[in-house]
UniProtKB/TrEMBL annotation:
A GO BP entry: cobalamin biosynthetic process
Gene3D superfamilies documented for this protein: 3.40.50.1400
4Fe-4S listed as a keyword: no
MF-aspect GO terms: lyase activity; metal ion binding
Name of the molecule in the record: Sirohydrochlorin cobaltochelatase
Top-level taxon of the source organism: Archaea
InterPro entries: CbiX-like, Sirohydro_Cobaltochel/CbiX
Phylogenetic classification of the source organism: Archaea, Methanobacteriati, Methanobacteriota, Stenosarchaea group, Halobacteria
Keywords, alphabetical: Cobalamin biosynthesis, Cobalt, Lyase, Metal-binding
Secretion signal span: none
Length: 292
């Protein structure tokens, strides 16, 4: 019996923080790729410490819904899940290449396939591009458009920037968009100056965040000049310094994220049949068109 456990941060302050996690779990649950699908959170219920006790499967695939490798994926999650004998060296990662490790959860004595975070998987590049398609309402968007991938940026975790640069490079290699730039909130180059980095009139801006919250709904729109007061809202596209900014919000809210979760589990050995094809088709047909 195969079980999937999607683990995420959650929030005591933002009730919408866990919404993408539940949405993607529902998508995967609906297509029957696993015998059961559970969710667990650091800051919400069910807690990381208890979630494995609710699982019935003898083969458990744990996928962290996090953007980068670091403190949570390397220390907090393994500790809270009681993954016996875990050591980050089992991933043998350069900060982008964590795949999976097979270990035992000591309190339930069952096999756990602990996967790397979704944010560093190559399939996340496709989700970023899909986000651009969704916000513009154009499945062929690219010609004449710039693309900005936005991350938090922090000196405390150098891997945070690695994930942003990785996906920006992959999008650049597609040769689909006129210009591609990685930007950050807390380090150079900063998203505040987004229009300085593009010659194209149209710029799609996609934050590489799992859920919409304080940063994506308040800080980034105000920093880019979309609005002086986020509570009053802003246009999509918004006109800033002679450019049209198509602000997409957190990439993690895109339906295609379910595909990346499945990819992580499949890479770890899960048998998922044609689930990937079904998710790709379902999420494309379900995406609402936005913008003009």
């Amino acid at each position: 019996m195969q079980s999937l456990v999607i683990v995420a941060h959650g929030s005591h302050l933002n009730p919408d923080s866990s919404a993408p996690t539940h949405d993607h779990a529902d998508t995967i649950r609906s297509i029957g790729a696993f015998d059961e699908v559970r969710t667990g959170f650091w800051k919400e219920e069910p807690s990381l410490r208890e979630v494995l006790r609710t699982v019935e499967g003898d083969e458990i695939y744990v996928v962290p819904l996090f953007i980068s490798e670091g403190y949570f994926t390397e220390q907090v999650i393994p500790r809270e899940l009681r993954l016996d004998g875990w050591d980050v060296s089992q991933w043998d990662s350069d900060g982008l290449s964590a795949d999976h490790a097979v270990i035992t959860a000591e309190d339930i004595d069952r096999t756990v396939h602990y996967c790397g975070p979704v944010g560093t998987h190559e399939a996340m590049t496709d989700v970023l591009v899909r986000r651009a398609e969704s916000v513009t309402g154009d499945s062929d968007v690219g010609d004449g458009f710039g693309f900005a991938v936005v991350g938090h940026g922090t000196e405390r975790n150098e891997n945070s920037a690695k994930a942003i640069e990785y996906h920006a490079d992959r999008i650049r290699q597609m040769d689909r968009f006129e210009e591609v730039q990685a930007l950050y909130m807390d380090e150079e180059p900063e998203v505040d100056d987004v229009t300085d980095f593009f010659e194209t009139e149209d710029i799609v801006v996609v934050p590489l965040f799992i859920a919409d919250g304080f940063h994506t709904q308040e800080d980034i729109p105000e920093d880019m000049g979309l609005t002086d007061d986020y509570t009053k809202g802003y246009d999509i596209p918004a006109h800033v310094d002679g450019h049209r900014i198509w602000y997409a919000g957190a990439v993690g809210t895109e339906g295609l994220m379910a595909d990346v979760i499945l990819e992580r589990a499949a890479d770890a050995g899960a048998s998922i049949g044609d689930a990937l094809e079904i998710v790709r088709e379902q999420t494309r047909s379900a995406e609402p068109a936005m913008g003009d």
